[in-house]
Amino acid sequence: MSPHSATDPFRVADPAERFGRPAGGWRLRLFTVIFESDTRAGRLFDLALVWLILASVAVVMLDSFESLHARWGAAFGVLEWIFTLLFSLEYLARLACVRRPSRYALSAFGVIDLLAVLPTWAALFLPGLHALIDVRLLRLLRLFRILKLAAYIDEYRALGQALMASRRKILVFLSFVLSVVVVMGTVMYVVEGPANGFTNIPVSVYWAISTMTTVGFGDITPKTGLGRFIASFMMLVGWGTLAVPTGIVSAEFTALRFRGPRRCPACASEGHDPTARFCKDCGSSL
């Protein structure tokens, strides 16, 4: 696995470089399976882990149904502990097979791995402390396991790179939208007033946001002709505005695909031409 730029937080640096590859023995074999997805064992490990993550999230979601919880709560509890034990062993194995375990524990994926198992273990010690935390919240925090998928799917990293590359444009766009909703919300406060539900400027800005995003909850509606004209104008502006961030990210996504080095999924060689369809070394499809 080739090292990536340390300036890009969405690109995962080479684990051997960042966390330290062990010299040999069982730790090196374990490191190869867990961290090096270029190997057959590594690919199988990642695939199995993805299915475990999806299954554990599905169990948490099903357990949130009261009818299913009443009937299958005990089975869901057993499955939850099985998943927790497996993820705990995975987390400990990652710490054990690197030469700098503290660096892995403090990394983004290390924190996510910890969040995947911490709620279940914490529930053992906090069920009676209702004033501090709700146990149901701890159960729902297990859904953080879905974030573990980002470590095993390359498209997550590509999307993250596109978002980082377009962050300045998106911030400029959001500042423009914020200015529009503040101004239009203030205007609606003046036009409609408290008698029609626009009791203050923050409430009016809330109405402007829901209108501009075409959500339209309907809890606050303009009653005057001028107010309805302004609302119609904001709906049209919002309809056209929603496509802007999508276009920005899509453009960066496309640009990054041809800008960075293309890597062969079969032999991991890099340096291919942007328009290349096959690997120059092994002939596999890119």
Description:
The protein is mainly alpha-helical. The protein has two domains: 15-152, Four Helix Bundle (Hemerythrin (Met), subunit A); 154-286, Helix Hairpins (Orthogonal Bundle), CATH 1.10.287.70. It has helices at residues 15-20, 25-35, 40-63, 66-96, 101-105, 108-123, 135-140, 154-165, 167-191, 201-212, 225-241, 243-259. The two termini are 17 Å apart.
How would you summarize the topology of this molecule?
Blueprint: H1 15-20, H2 25-35, H3 40-63, H4 66-96, H5 101-105, H6 108-123, H7 135-140, H8 154-165, H9 167-191, H10 201-212, H11 225-241, H12 243-259
Helix pairs in contact: 2-3, 3-4, 4-6, 8-12, 9-10, 9-11
Broad structural category: mainly alpha
Please report the number of helical segments: 12
User: Uncertain runs with pLDDT below 50, 5 residues or more?
Assistant: 1-12, 128-137
Shape: extended
Report the sheet-strand fraction. under 5%
Q: Sheet with the most strands?
A: none
Number-wise, the strands total 0
Q: What value does the Rg take, in angstroms?
A: 25 Å
Terminal residue distance: 17 Å
String of helices and strands: HHHHHHHHHHHH
Average the pLDDT over all residues and give the rounded result. 79
CATH architecture of the largest domain: Up-down Bundle
Q: Tell me the domain tally.
A: 2
In a few lines, what is going on in this structure?
The chain has helices at 15-20, 25-35, 40-63, 66-96, 101-105, 108-123, 135-140, 154-165, 167-191, 201-212, 225-241, 243-259.
Main attributes of the structure:
Four Helix Bundle (Hemerythrin (Met), subunit A), 0% strand, disordered N terminus, 12 helices
